[in-house]
Every structure is written in C-alpha cells, then in structure tokens.
C-alpha cells in the first residue's frame, strides 16, 4: 500500500514539475506582457508560489511517509521477533511445565512410599524397642535371681560348712562318748548311745537335705545359665535387628534429605517458572503496546493518504486554474495582437494622414 502511495506521489511530482515548467514559461510570457496586464502576472505568480508550496509540502509528506514506513517496518520486525520469542518461550514453558509436573508427581509418589516405609519402620522399631525392653527386664530379673541364688548358695555353703564342722564335732563327741561309755555302766551307755544315734541320724538327714538343696541349686544354676545364654542370644539378635533398623533409619534420613533437596529444586524450578510467566506477561504487554503503535501508525498513514488525496485535488484545481489562466493569457495575447494590429493600422493611417497633410502643405506652399 505504501509503495503504491510513493509511486502515486512521484507521478504527482512529475506532473507538478511539468506544470512548473509551463508556469515558468507563462511567467516569462507574462513578464513580457506585464506592462499591458500586471494583475494577471501577479495572479500567475501567486499560483506558481502556491504550486511550489504544494510541491514542498508533498515532498515533506513523502519524507514523513517514508519515515513512518520505516518505523512500521521496524515495529513489524520487532513484533514478529517478539511473537517468535513468545511462541518459543511458550513451547519451552510448556515442556518445562510438563517435566516439572512429572517430577512433582514422581516425587509425591516417592514421598508417599517413603512415608509408608517410615511408618512401617517406626512401628517395627517400636515393637523391637518394646521387645528389647521386655528382654532387658527379663535379663535384669534373671540377674537378680542369679545374685539371689548366689547368695543362697553361699549361705548354703556356709550352712554346709557349719554342718560339716558340726558333724566332725559330733563324730569327735561320739568318739569321746564311746570312750566315756566304755568307762560307764552298760545302762547309761545304752541311753547315751541311743541319744547320740538319734542326733547322728538327724544330722545325716539334715546333711541329705542340704545335699538335695545343693543339687537343686546346681540344677537351678544350670537352668539359669541356659536361660542367660538364651537371653544373651536373643539380646544379640535384638541388637542385630536394632542395627538393621538404625541402618534403615539412616537410609530413610538420607532419602528424606534427598527429598528435601528435590523439593528445594522443585521450589527453585517453580520460581523460575513463575519468573518465565512474568516475562511472558511483560512480552505480551509489550506486544500489545507494539500493536497499538502499529495501529496508530496505520491511522497516521491513512491520515497522510487523505492529506495527499486532498493535495492531489488541490493540485488538480490549481492545474485547472492554470489552464484557465493559460486560456485567458492566450485570449489576452490575441486581443493584444489585434490591438497592436489595430494600432499599427491606425499609426499607418496617421502616417498616411500625416504624409497627406505634408503633401497638401507642400502644394499650398
């Protein structure tokens, strides 16, 4: 559209150039006839000046249109570049958004799985701690029982030692009694012998009881040793389970730290995404401003086109006026030539009259 307008303006300039040549010719001719018709010369000069002003104004408008066209081309190029950037950014944002959403969904699944694993591990750890506490209580009770049995064993050992001492003393007393009995009468010796036998039997029974108690204590000590070994074995197993649970907890802590890093990464990605969206909004706003400027420039070009059309009409009117002036000048020239011929004839007649008068005067003389 603008190229056709430029062509149209060049054609008008050529027409104006031709008209200027015609007007220059008319100006030269009118200057020759200025003595006969000065008002027509002034009108012609005014028309020529008006044509020159119109020509300069059209040149200025052409320069302004070229400047506007350059601005429009720049804005159009900037708009296309901005539009391409916006489309590229939208495509990149769409891909990054899809990737971020996939990462978020994957991390949420991992977080849920880790949460379930954490709950299971914590439950297992609580059960292990409860079992360990119960085993520790059993172990403490067994330690108390072992200490108590050890005290009882020491006490029984002391009693057995006392009984052995008593036995030895009784045997000694029995031997002394036998010696005494041999020295006494048979009746007294029988009674003392019975009494000693009774005491000896009681001592033997007490010794047997102590032996059974010692055997029972030995069995009980063996059972306690077995129970202690089982407790130690169970304690070792629990320690292994605790170590495994601690290892799982460490792994869970590492996974939590990894999850925190991933969440921080997602947060930074979200910030980048928000920043990109803000940049897109700014680019869209700038695109809207460029579109408004483009519309404004189109309106300006349309306004200049209307002005050019008005100037074209004014140039046509001036051309018609110049043609009318040319016709008037031709008529004036024709009338001037007729007047000149008439004046020449009159001068000729006057010359002839003068010659006739001079001839008459000569005849009279």
Please give the structural blueprint.
Layout: H1 2-32, H2 38-183, H3 186-364
Helix pairs in contact: 1-2, 1-3, 2-3
Coiled coil: 51-262
Keywords: Coiled coil
Protein name: A kinase anchor protein 9
Order of helices and strands: HHH
Number of helices: 3
How far apart lie the N and C ends?
92 Å
Mean pLDDT: 69
The geometry reads as rod-shaped
The low-confidence runs, each spanning 5 or more residues with pLDDT under 50, are: none
Structural class: mainly alpha
Helix content: over 70%
Total strands: the figure is: 0
Strand content: under 5%
Molecular structure report:
98% of the residues lie in helices and 0% in strands. The chain has helices at 2-32, 38-183, 186-364. Helix 1 runs antiparallel to helix 2 and helix 2 (38-183) runs antiparallel to helix 3 (186-364). The longest helix is centred in the C-terminal third of the chain and has 179 residues, at 186-364. It is rod-shaped, with a radius of gyration of 70 Å. The model has no long low-confidence stretch (mean pLDDT 69). This is A kinase anchor protein 9.
